[in-house]
Amino acid sequence: MSGFMHPQDLKLEDTQLTSAFANLDVGNLLSRMPAEIATRASEIVKDAELDDTEIALRLAMIAMTEAENRIARQEKRIAHLESLSVTDELTGLLNRRGFAERLQSALAACKRQGITGTLLMIDLDKFKAVNDTYGHAAGDALLITVARILQSRTRETDSVARLGGDEFAVIMSGADEDDAQARINALDHELNTRILQWNGSAIHLHASVGHDAYGPDDTEPELLDRVDRAMYARKQESVFADL
Question: 181's torsion region: left (phi>0), alpha (psi -120 to 50) or beta?
């Protein structure tokens, strides 16, 4: 019955509601309803062809319908808030928390069902220089560009995350080795050839990509360590290439 009640009256006991319907103290009941529901209810009350029982039943139907709608709105709001808690505000990708949850799920599925996959870690090179030279707005634009590249080069079933700063990750769950490698090669190429035009300047994107496959025996710390070391090795290669 709480669906048609004024928010301040949600703590009323069921006996009070029963009494209100039994005595049909309609005027008081309508005065305590939210305005949009009271309008519908008042039309029922004014219907001369309805007896007291029919009025009570129809008011109860309004109450139940509104209660269901209110619950649906609350569930939608909760789902939205939960989504925000695992989403990176700037890029719309998963954040570190969302990534951790997806990685745990992927490794659990691997142990239970043998669904193997590949984990990628991406770190932007010379990102601080972009911020220092062109400003943080340019840096943000570059991060968003990277996010769009990662999304375009991965499947809908993959999990793409921004872990913080200029560090990203991708979980390719269920991808066979050849498909994963082809996607990684395409992604690596685009991350190191894309140019961002910014206020008349050309900002060249550079990134180090480390990756490794995971299997049923892998633990989260071991996998993260392997991939992090692979990424660091790629970063060192790019440093020496610039010398």
Answer: alpha
